[in-house]
Design goal:
Dihydrodipicolinate Reductase, domain 2; ten-stranded mixed beta sheet; 21% strand; alpha/beta; globular; 2 domains; 416 residues; Rossmann fold; 13 helices
Length: 416
């Protein structure tokens, strides 16, 4: 490009950004949005946004007719239906999109949305593999897009209060954080949709998209996609993406220095691939964070986020947080209730679309927390610990592990 081309391009991008800002501030300040992926979580997001007075549902996109029809009905038929996400992105009257597809589609759709001048609310985990995240961050920054990751705990007032209390020394010096989730689904799950075969209008090949070609399997799509490496990363990238995100926020670091993991699919017999038992240890400077998950025994609790300080323990959950003082710790017990995290997160996104400020769960933070999850899975699958260079986003001294940071897309899909 010569100097004249650069000036022309810069002017065009600036004009497009300004036009987008004027558009969302017009028509009573309502933000027109499209929903791409209207399965279970997509409809939950839609229901949350519908409660916001300045949200306008403009389009619902899904490959599976029953899900799309349910979402359209929830908007009282105000949103237009479509099957191809590019039809949503081509519409000039749409300001932003919710991306609630399976994980293996997140990067392609979200970066295309940024390229099309849309702001993005993308469900977690942000990525399927590490290299996607940096490209998503770059796309958001290049086009000056507001990009919120669906890590709604970042918008919880009691989470912010707890993090500040801990970082201010409220429970003393913190050197250990324990996170996890436990449930019992033994001996495994079964398909809930299309168990007798795909409906004629369901495009299985498009659902696979950039993932490897596979024969149709009803267990691989809808909710159960989470248990296959082609599309997701199991509970590590499902619930781990939530709780490890808060642990990293508390520590105040971009990434761990070292990761060691063990686990496997030992007991479940439903055909899934991701672990039903997993234990991961993350080493930060002066802090050890652990992740524990079990799909075969619940025990006494479902979720865990315990922060251990020299003066006391703080247990932090969506319902609130509680402080348990150590003997002679010199602090008092404290109990704080939680609030509506989903509503607060949606509100934060809509406000940022208008103000052009960075949201609570900005894409960079979503990327860094997804990296933690991916490193845990890579360490487990390789059977060895990994040392991480956060600045270069590379595993130190392990060429094989670095090959796991990216994956080829099935043609014709490309992430640029």
């Amino acid at each position: 490009m010569n100097r004249r081309d650069i000036i022309r391009t810069t002017f065009a991008l600036g004009a497009a950004t300004a036009l987008g800002a004027r558009r969302v501030m017009g028509a009573n300040g309502r933000v027109r949005m499209g929903v791409i992926g209207s399965g279970g979580r997509g409809r939950q997001d839609l229901a949350t946004f519908l409660k916001q007075p300045d949200f306008e549902p403009a389009a619902i996109c899904d490959l599976y007719d029953p899900f799309r029809e349910k979402a359209i009905a929830a908007t009282e038929n105000r949103a237009q239906p479509c099957k191809d996400f590019r039809q949503v992105l081509d519409r000039k009257d749409i300001d932003a999109v919710i991306v609630a597809t399976p994980d293996h589609w997140h990067a392609l759709i979200a970066t295309a949305a940024c390229d099309a001048g849309k702001d993005v609310y993308c469900e977690k985990p942000l990525t399927l593999f590490v290299a996607e995240g940096r490209k998503m961050v770059d796309a958001a920054r290049r086009h000056n897009r507001v990009f919120q990751v669906g890590s709604q705990q970042r918008s919880g007032a009691h989470y912010a209060q707890a993090v500040k209390l801990i970082q201010d020394g409220g429970i003393g010096q913190v050197h250990r954080i324990r996170a996890g989730m436990q449930r019992n689904i033994y001996p495994g799950l079964k398909p809930t949709e299309m168990a007798a075969g795909p409906i004629p209008s369901f495009d299985w090949d498009t659902w696979l998209g950039p993932a490897p070609k596979r024969a149709f399997d009803p267990f691989r799509c809808i909710y159960n996609f989470r248990w296959f490496w082609d599309y997701s990363g199991g509970q590590m990238t499902n619930w781990g993406a939530h709780h490890l995100d808060i642990a990293r926020w508390i520590v105040g670091a971009e990434a761990p220095a070292e990761v060691a993991a063990s686990g496997g699919r030992y007991a479940l017999t439903d055909g899934g691939e991701t672990p039903d038992v997993q234990e991961v240890v993350y080493r930060f400077p002066k802090t050890v964070v652990t992740w524990t998950s079990s799909e075969i025994a619940k025990g006494q609790s479902s979720f865990t986020l315990d922060i251990y300080g020299t003066k006391g323990q703080l247990t932090l959950l969506r319902s609130g947080f509680q402080i348990f003082p150590e003997k002679n710790g010199g602090i008092e017990p404290l109990q704080v209730k939680g609030g509506d995290l989903d509503a607060a997160h949606a509100r934060n996104f809509l406000d940022c679309v208008k103000s052009r400020q960075r949201p609570n769960a900005d894409v960079e933070e979503g990327h860094r927390s997804a990296v933690m999850c991916h490193l845990g899975n890579i360490s487990m699958r390789l059977g060895r610990s990994l040392k991480w260079d956060a600045a270069r986003e590379q595993v130190i001294g392990d060429a094989e592990a670095n090959q796991w940071l990216s994956r080829p897309y099935r043609a014709p899909w490309k992430l640029t």
